[in-house]
Design goal:
The chain is mainly α. It folds into two domains: about 160 residues, no CATH class; about 250 residues, no CATH class. It contains 24 helices and no strands. It is globular. The C terminus is likely disordered.
Amino acid sequence: MIGMIDVVLSIMTLAVGSGIAGAMGRFYFEQETEQERKSLVSTTIFLMFALVLIVSIPVLLFHESVAWLALGSRDYGYYIVLAALAFVCEMTSKTPEAYILLQQKPFLISFLALGRLILGLSLNVYLIVSLEMGVLGYLYASLITGVLSTLVMHAYALYHVGLSFKKSFAEKMLRFSLPLVPGYLALFVRGNASRVILRTYLGLSQLGAFEMLFKFSTLLGVLIVQPFSKIWNVKRYEICDAPEGPETMARMFTLQMASMLFFGVILALEIPLLLRVMTPQEFWLGEGIVLLAVCSRILNAAYQQVNFGLLYAKKTYKITVIQWVTSILSLVLNLWLIGRYGIFGAVLASCLVTASQCLMGHFMSRGYYRIPFQWQTITKMTLAATVLVLAIGQVSFAGFGMSVWLSQSLTPGVVAFMQAVHLDVIKDGKLLLYVTGNIPLVVEGTLKLLLSLFFLPVLIYLGVLPWRIFNHFSTWHFLRHPLRGGG
C-alpha cells in the first residue's frame, strides 16, 4: 500500500517538478543587491506554494477515486488525503531549504535533517509499533514530521527575507523550470520500465532481488552524492563566472568522483555479503551484478555535474531531450537484455543508459560552459577501483574452506557475549542462531572492508588526495578551499 501511495506522490511530483528550487539557485547570484535576492526567495516561496496547491487540490477533492485507482478500494480515500497533505509539506519545504544552502549554512541543514530523522523515527516506532496503527501510523508520522519541518524552515526563511512577490522573477523561474517537467515524466518512465519488465519476465521474487540491490546501492547517494550536491550545486553558481571557476569545478568533480569510487568499492564488495546475511537465498546476487549497479549510480551522479553548461545557459529544454532519448533507450535495452540475461540484463541496461546520459550531457553542455575535466586522472581512478573490486572479490572463506573453522573458533566467544548481555533470549534463541550462523560472512565482510582501504594510497599516488588531506576534516572545507593541482 505504501508503495502504491508513493507512485501517486511520484506522479504529483512530476506535475510540480523539482526545478523551482533549483531555478532560485540559478538566478540568486545574478541579483546585484541583497534586497533583490530577498525578493527572489520570497517570490519563489509563493510560487512553489501555488504550484503545489494546483496539483494537490484535485487529488484532495477526488481522493476516493484516486484511492480506487491506486489501492483498489474507495475506502482508503483517507489514506490519500494524509499522503497528499504530507506531499504539500515536503514539496514546499524545498524552497526554504534551498535558501539556507544559498546562505552557505550546511550545518543548520544537517541539524534540521537530524531533528527530522529523530522525530520521524520516534513517531514511526510509537504509532506503528506501540499503537499498532500500521499504514495509517506511517502516514500520520510523515504528515506530522512534514508539518513541523516546513513550518520551522519557512519561519527561518521568511524572517530573513520578508514577504514580497515580483512578477518578473516568477516568469523567469517558470521559463527556466517548466521545460524540465516533460523530462521528469521521462525519468518516471525510465525508472519504472525495468521493474515492469522484470516482473513480467521473471516474477516478483526476481523483482524483489533487483529492488534490494538498488536499495543498498542507493547508500552511495545517501553518503556522498546528496550531501555533496546540496552544497556544491549552490556554490558552483557563485564561482562559475570567476576566472578560476572552470578549473575549480573540474577539481571538485575529480574529488567527487574519488569519493564516489572509494565508497563504490566498499559497496560493491559488501552488498553481496549483506544480501546473504539479510535476505532469502533467491535475493543473493554476485559481485559482477553489484559492481554494475554501483557503476550505474556513480554515472547517474556524474551526469548532474557534466551537464552544468545547459543549466548555466538556461537551456533546460535540452535536458528534457536527453531524458526522453535515454528513456526510450532504457525501454529498448531492458526489453532486449532482461529476457536474455535476467537481473544482469536489467543492471547492464541501467549502466549503459546512464553512461549514454553522461556522454550526451557532456557534449551538449561544453559549448555553453567548458570545464577542463581531468579525464586522465578520472580514468586511472576508475580502472584502479575496478581492478581492486575484482581482486578483493576473489577473497572467500567458503572458497578457501575456512568457514567451518571460523565458526568453530569464534562461536563460543560470540555465544558467551550474547548470553552476558541477555541477547540469547530474543525470539526464543533465534537471534543467537542467526548471528552464529553468519560469523564467517561477518569476518569476510570486515576483511574486505579493510582491503578496500588500499584505494586511498592509489588516490594519493595519482595526486588526487595529497598527504595534507588528512588535516582537513569536512566536505565544507573542500568547497570553500578546493585543492590545487592533482593532475
